[in-house]
From TrEMBL:
Species for this entry: Amycolatopsis minnesotensis
InterPro entries registered for this protein in UniProt: ABC1_dom, ADCK3_dom, Atypical_kinase_ADCK, Kinase-like_dom_sf
Presence of the UniProt keyword tRNA-binding in the record: no
Domain of life: Bacteria
Protein name according to UniProt: AarF/ABC1/UbiB kinase family protein
Lineage: Bacteria, Bacillati, Actinomycetota, Actinomycetes, Pseudonocardiales
UniProt domain ABC1 atypical kinase-like: residue ranges: 105-328
Entry keywords, A to Z: ATP-binding, Kinase, Nucleotide-binding, Transferase
Amino acid sequence: MTESHDAAEERTDSAIPHRTAARTAKLASLPLGIAGRAVGGWGRRLTGQSAKEVNAALSAKAAEQLFEVLGTLKGGAMKFGQTLSVFEAAVPDEMAEPYRDALTRLQAAAPPMPIRQTQRVLTEQLGRAWRERFRDFDDVPAAAASIGQVHRAVWHDGREVAVKVQYPGADEALRSDLRQLQRFSRLFQALVPGTEVKPLLAELAARMDEELDYRAEADNQRAFAKVLDGDPRVVVPKIVASAPKVVVSEWIDGTPLSRIISSGDKATRDHVGTLLAEFHYSSPERAHLLHSDPHPGNFMLLGDGRLGVIDFGAVARLPDGIPSHLGEMTRLALDGRSRELMSLLRSSGFVRQGTELDPDDVLSYLAPFTEPLATETFHFTRKWMQRQAGRIGDTRGQDFRTGRSLNLPPEYLLIHRVTAGSTGILCQLDAEIPARSIVERWQPGFAA
């Protein structure tokens, strides 16, 4: 039977490559390419080039390949790259710059799908007369990311709106990519020392269905927008319409966090860092929800000084807010009360049954993480994050052994990952903020 023209176009113009074998081959090229370049690097060392020159060249080429593969594949590959991007602050300076650039580009850039394919999705989701719902619709996407792209439009009532359209095949691509990425987790571990890549991938896989359901994302955004309506410091765009693979929300304009990170002045970086920390710590108390996709591409600074927040596909539901045990543990670690801390960790499931640990070793492991709360303000820097990552990632040190003996209960995994991600952004911003007063106000159990 002869393939129809439309079917052939659909097959060749797909925004996400559908064939699992092709996607797997591209992902497999990452470890093979890095290994091959390492061998070539040894050859150049033998010809007299310095280790520093060779390592810099290898890092630059590996970073470019990382962007090319994770970015063009979109799906779970790009989603993973975006998630990794917030941890680049932990990468040592001598190899960080190429990866910093590649991972930052992954936050907001991906090849768009063809116009006819976009229109086909809109027809399926909003009906054949979908254009009548808009006064104007820009067929060229304003942004393209891991599982969807965003178009700027004007709703029939005159409001400027953002129209997020999911790529056909996004579900298949997410499942395939995350399976393959889990096989290569050791490779990616080297890019972000001190970050546990394997459970991060497992969590992304577990939350995949939520990310794919734009109706659920719209409900999450409605909940945030309702609670924060009229807030003087944070803006969440209101939902205008939604369908399983299309969501329409009010448009907001602002300066992307990636630009503030790269070229913002100190006052702006400190201001944005304070707003970001307040949003992170206050959301569980105010909305009983936690925005769980903390990378700079999801935040912007509006012209009136407020923080704009977008993309609510990943949200943790916390009907009782953040567990007070976390605040209590933080306070005990800050105050150096090792035995009380150990007792609370055991009763809360953070120490495996039958594991013997020295309370002072546990305090030594956890106390440095509370440094931002020891003073009225704290300067979050890449150096500080690199120091923490190096400390807990040093296989020869006591902190590494202690960390391996502790347990993170499943109900705390997402909270921990989001807090770490938000801290990573603060370090990228090089922001000095009143972290202690923010935590005292919003974190149950912390206030003395």
